Amino acid sequence: MKRIFVVVLLFLCMASGALLSAQEAPEEGKAVEAASGGTAGWKYFAAALAVGISCIAGGIAVGQIGAAAMGAMSENPELSGKALPYAGLAEGICLWGFLVALLILIF
Predict the structure, then answer these.
(1) 3-state secondary structure (DSSP) of residue 86
(2) What is the pLDDT of the chain when averaged over all its residues?
(3) 23 Cβ partners below 8 Å, 6+ apart?
């Protein structure tokens, strides 16, 4: 858990540095683009954050469910068909993060 926090904190620091350095002084003909340029960077940052956090959470969930499913199947092999849908539900977390990111980028 400590590693995940460090990775997320490092990602936030790098992304904020990239966003701050990407803002330039507007040229004469690009006044309209400069007004909306600040929100475009945050849009990509929010999409990356949605996918990143959901995939990390999905990976943790699949790891926990997989370990529990293997333990249950070692005691009773008939439970293999019942454990598979739970792993699929945990992987669905990543899909929802991707869909949220896609909606952020489109709208």
Answers:
(1) helix
(2) 80
(3) 37, 38, 41
